[in-house]
Write a structure and sequence with these properties.
The chain is built from 2 helices and no strands. It is mostly helical. The protein has a domain of 38 residues.
């Protein structure tokens, strides 16, 4: 009792040759050039510097709060 799910099921499901699945090839996206990569890295460096400043400011605030509690 296969309920009609034999070889024909797989063939019609994947539409491949002799029941093998067919996966179409997709082109890979173009790789960024050196200038694009340099600009992206510079932006990332700016963002990280800003985040570091925020962390340092928060640490300073926490130290001040700790000293005020004493």
């Amino acid at each position: 009792m296969g309920l009609g799910r034999g070889r024909g099921f797989w063939r019609s499901r994947f539409d491949g040759f002799w029941g093998y699945p067919y996966f179409p090839l997709t082109p890979s996206p173009p790789q960024p050039g050196r200038e694009d990569e340099a600009a992206w890295l510079a932006d990332q460096a700016k963002i990280l510097e800003q985040q570091l400043l925020q962390v340092q400011e928060r640490l300073t605030e926490l130290k001040k709060e700790k000293e005020a509690d004493k």
